[in-house]
């Protein structure tokens, strides 16, 4: 994977955060440890650190996402950065400017970080390859490819409840095929040494070569959920599905939706996760989503700490003399 | 009114600001006195106080309002808060998320205050009942129900010109039926001891039980305006009117519009108010709106001070140990 | 020109920045020198100065422009101002409020500076004439009239490469007729003593009285570009052209587009400028736009410094006792 090395400098430090694939365990641990120390910031009366004071963070959102954009905006502001949000679809596109010209112009405004969300796989890496070396690029979701900050907040949430990844059984349930969340999470769990990662989905919602990711495949949740520590329910990405891969939402819920009965198959202290926004009654029953084992809202809180950590680390690595950079 | 007590803690201090109804005189005086001291901030070269530094204020606007949103945003920024504006109609609603799930997610981002504008009466209280105890909710207008920060800036403006509420004659003219401004103002004036509150409107624009609010009803402005100290003209809420309650704008102006002739019926030093935006030639003649007795633009200035005061007070009351909270 | 003097105080200092026309050389030099000292700010690790801390800058954009709005927003934030962006077309216009009432309301919120973009010539001056004396108004482009901050960033960029304006030959190529950029730049170059300003365009894209601006007119770029130090290509303002003044984009490129061949006619160290966004293959060939003599992206960087300078100077002049003001 070219991008594996591309997001690192010669010393192997993170310059961008584009994909989990190819990162080392120490990269993930550094993020998790930094997130842990930053998580306390949001509980203090003054929820701000001066880390990015005088830096400019630009949200480049080619795909709408209030939730993700908001958490990045809050993360940047709590690190004292100035934040600029550009909805590209509705701005310079009007005047027929190409993506590269738009990028060149924004970087000429001496911004320090681009947070990129795009419906095409590879968009964030494309941008990282074309920006000036002092700019850090964070992938906030690109097509079906990756959503690495989501994966980091997920493993951060898991670690706060179940610190020993090397003893963990994790089930990921639902639309694996269209889920950049699932892809990134599987990579992160693997790097952290999780021995048992299961994906539970109908064949039509699985990528062809899913086993190559190092997961065990189940199409029956009654078997797949047995004894797991963590259940990650995926959102049914209705807006990304072309054609009729599914009979109906109701049928999906009957076959795969997480109910209290199915949850009972997992370990008694299992946690239930979901990247949000949830479709109640489609992939998850409300009693489970709002129940005592759900950590879905903790994920949102942790998302800010994880993003603050990734912002601090990547921009910190850019602060060295530029001659050192690749 | 359940909400009367709901917005207070056990010591009777303001945790939210949802409605004027049921508040005590000391609550209003505290806001007015704080607003008075904050009003000077905007006249200083550095218009900022560190009061809300490190706090996150979220504008939740389910109903468009540039003016009100802007004054809340400025008030928060002048208190050094970080401000997030979410236009709910155009964001998570796209993905079919329920209001409660949206709220849960925003509060999980560890925000401190929600400023809520909604076209449905009771929306702000509903939200206040469902957010975590550390979050303060301010009602920035809910349906026909209440607009309590507008009422506070109105009585703040009145007090700066006519400090003795217990000797005041106030006339509120126009579409009382659809006006949350009128409802909240009548409550505030009553609590502050105003002995003579008059509403002047055609019967079709009056609520059925309007006298129960403690007001005197006039349908003839020539009689109703006589000798008053304060005239509050209401905006003809065309966008809220269903059906033909009125013959025409022109006819309304002829019968109720504030002209210099009608203004002459009031006390010589009477002040003229309007919550804005004004419909020139519909509820008010331009010569009056722009004339020497108009304090309409002072209301805008005072609105920022009043909102800064309410933000400071409610968040200050939340800053106690959480164990103390209801 | 009434506006010539209108933007100055009695001591001849800039209170607003509406047009280049009628300014003195020392006004421009003060802006250029200030921009030069501010340019370094963006290269520091902490890209912020406290100059406008506690000030409120309002972007009043009646015409969409992500690029210009963004540079003003960044300039204001790097000077520590609070920034409010109002897209007027979509906000209070909804409720039918007049422009003057909107202005009165925003100024009542005790803002310090209005940055105005409007499709009508004279709009910024109109606003400057009607706001309270403590408010500085910057013209961010009004119709075909002026774009003075663009002109200042252009001459700032020229001076960084060719400091001696009194020895300069400058060619401005393209749609002069619809270009507020060209008008303002011609004024600025003239004030700075540029002896040879050329406009190169088909007659249909030239104002009737263009020679009165003190320029030499060429319709043939092969002659007009000969020996120049600076080439300023204008954007083909397709959205501003009514009727068929041009045969086709392709024909325009063949006749006037800046190619490497045409660039070779200029001095060997000539610089190539463009206000952006560029139409590749219409007014400029990509090899030139991205080539070693292009300073197009430097213009973007310099635009922030120039705007920071203009903001600092105009607000600084407002900070005197108000009694001194006109």
UniProtKB/TrEMBL annotation, chains A, B, C:
<feature type="binding site">
    <location>
        <position position="67"/>
    </location>
    <ligand>
        <name>carbamoyl phosphate</name>
    </ligand>
</feature>
<comment type="pathway">
    <text>Pyrimidine metabolism; UMP biosynthesis via de novo pathway; (S)-dihydroorotate from bicarbonate: step 2/3.</text>
</comment>
<comment type="subunit">
    <text>Heterododecamer (2C3:3R2) of six catalytic PyrB chains organized as two trimers (C3), and six regulatory PyrI chains organized as three dimers (R2).</text>
</comment>
<dbReference type="GO" id="GO:0004070">
    <property type="term" value="F:aspartate carbamoyltransferase activity"/>
</dbReference>
<dbReference type="Pfam" id="PF00185">
    <property type="entry name" value="OTCace"/>
</dbReference>
<dbReference type="InterPro" id="IPR006132">
    <property type="entry name" value="Asp/Orn_carbamoyltranf_P-bd"/>
</dbReference>
<keyword id="KW-0808">Transferase</keyword>
<feature type="binding site">
    <location>
        <position position="68"/>
    </location>
    <ligand>
        <name>carbamoyl phosphate</name>
    </ligand>
</feature>
<dbReference type="Pfam" id="PF02729">
    <property type="entry name" value="OTCace_N"/>
</dbReference>
<keyword id="KW-0665">Pyrimidine biosynthesis</keyword>
<dbReference type="InterPro" id="IPR006131">
    <property type="entry name" value="Asp_carbamoyltransf_Asp/Orn-bd"/>
</dbReference>
<comment type="function">
    <text>Catalyzes the condensation of carbamoyl phosphate and aspartate to form carbamoyl aspartate and inorganic phosphate, the committed step in the de novo pyrimidine nucleotide biosynthesis pathway.</text>
</comment>
<dbReference type="InterPro" id="IPR036901">
    <property type="entry name" value="Asp/Orn_carbamoylTrfase_sf"/>
</dbReference>
<dbReference type="GO" id="GO:0016597">
    <property type="term" value="F:amino acid binding"/>
</dbReference>
<feature type="domain" description="Aspartate/ornithine carbamoyltransferase Asp/Orn-binding">
    <location>
        <begin position="168"/>
        <end position="313"/>
    </location>
</feature>
<feature type="binding site">
    <location>
        <position position="276"/>
    </location>
    <ligand>
        <name>carbamoyl phosphate</name>
    </ligand>
</feature>
<dbReference type="GO" id="GO:0006520">
    <property type="term" value="P:amino acid metabolic process"/>
</dbReference>
<dbReference type="InterPro" id="IPR002082">
    <property type="entry name" value="Asp_carbamoyltransf"/>
</dbReference>
<feature type="domain" description="Aspartate/ornithine carbamoyltransferase carbamoyl-P binding">
    <location>
        <begin position="16"/>
        <end position="159"/>
    </location>
</feature>
<dbReference type="GO" id="GO:0005829">
    <property type="term" value="C:cytosol"/>
</dbReference>
<feature type="binding site">
    <location>
        <position position="147"/>
    </location>
    <ligand>
        <name>carbamoyl phosphate</name>
    </ligand>
</feature>
<dbReference type="GO" id="GO:0044205">
    <property type="term" value="P:'de novo' UMP biosynthetic process"/>
</dbReference>
<dbReference type="GO" id="GO:0006207">
    <property type="term" value="P:'de novo' pyrimidine nucleobase biosynthetic process"/>
</dbReference>
<feature type="binding site">
    <location>
        <position position="95"/>
    </location>
    <ligand>
        <name>L-aspartate</name>
    </ligand>
</feature>
<protein>
    <recommendedName>
        <fullName>Aspartate carbamoyltransferase</fullName>
        <ecNumber>2.1.3.2</ecNumber>
    </recommendedName>
</protein>
<comment type="similarity">
    <text>Belongs to the aspartate/ornithine carbamoyltransferase superfamily. ATCase family.</text>
</comment>
<dbReference type="InterPro" id="IPR006130">
    <property type="entry name" value="Asp/Orn_carbamoylTrfase"/>
</dbReference>
<feature type="binding site">
    <location>
        <position position="150"/>
    </location>
    <ligand>
        <name>carbamoyl phosphate</name>
    </ligand>
</feature>
<feature type="binding site">
    <location>
        <position position="235"/>
    </location>
    <ligand>
        <name>L-aspartate</name>
    </ligand>
</feature>
<feature type="binding site">
    <location>
        <position position="117"/>
    </location>
    <ligand>
        <name>carbamoyl phosphate</name>
    </ligand>
</feature>
<feature type="binding site">
    <location>
        <position position="180"/>
    </location>
    <ligand>
        <name>L-aspartate</name>
    </ligand>
</feature>
<feature type="binding site">
    <location>
        <position position="277"/>
    </location>
    <ligand>
        <name>carbamoyl phosphate</name>
    </ligand>
</feature>
């Amino acid at each position: 994977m070219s991008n594996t090395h591309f997001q690192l400098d010669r010393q192997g430090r993170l310059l961008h955060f584009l994909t989990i694939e190819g990162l080392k365990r120490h990269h993930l641990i550094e993020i998790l440890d930094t997130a842990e120390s930053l998580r306390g910031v949001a509980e203090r009366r003054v929820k701000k650190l001066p880390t990015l004071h005088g830096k400019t963070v630009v949200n480049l959102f080619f795909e709408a996402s209030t939730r993700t954009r908001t958490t990045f905006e809050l993360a940047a502001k709590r690190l004292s950065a100035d934040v600029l949000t550009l909805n590209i679809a509705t701005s310079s596109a009007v005047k027929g400017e190409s993506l590269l010209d738009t990028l060149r112009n924004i970087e000429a405004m001496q911004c320090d970080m681009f947070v990129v969300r795009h419906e095409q796989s590879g968009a964030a890496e494309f941008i990282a390859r074309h920006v000036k070396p002092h700019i850090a690029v964070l992938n906030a979701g690109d097509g079906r490819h990756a959503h690495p900050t989501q994966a980091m907040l997920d493993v951060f949430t898991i670690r706060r409840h179940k610190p020993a990844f090397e003893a963990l059984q994790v089930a990921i349930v639902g639309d694996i095929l269209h889920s950049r969340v699932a892809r990134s999470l599987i990579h992160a769990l693997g790097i952290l040494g999780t021995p048992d990662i299961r994906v539970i989905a109908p064949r039509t919602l699985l990528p062809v070569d899913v086993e190559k990711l190092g997961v065990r495949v189940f199409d029956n949740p009654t078997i797949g959920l047995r004894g797991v520590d963590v259940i990650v329910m995926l959102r049914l990405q209705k807006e990304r599905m072309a054609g009729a891969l599914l009979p109906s939402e109701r049928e999906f819920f009957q076959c795969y939706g997480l109910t209290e009965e199915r949850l009972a198959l997992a370990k008694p202290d299992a946690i239930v996760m979901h990247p949000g926004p949830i479709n109640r009654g489609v992939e998850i029953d409300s009693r489970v989503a709002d129940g005592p084992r759900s950590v879905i809202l903790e994920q949102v809180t942790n998302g800010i700490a994880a993003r603050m950590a990734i912002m601090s680390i990547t921009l910190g690595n850019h602060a060295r003399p530029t001659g050192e950079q690749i």
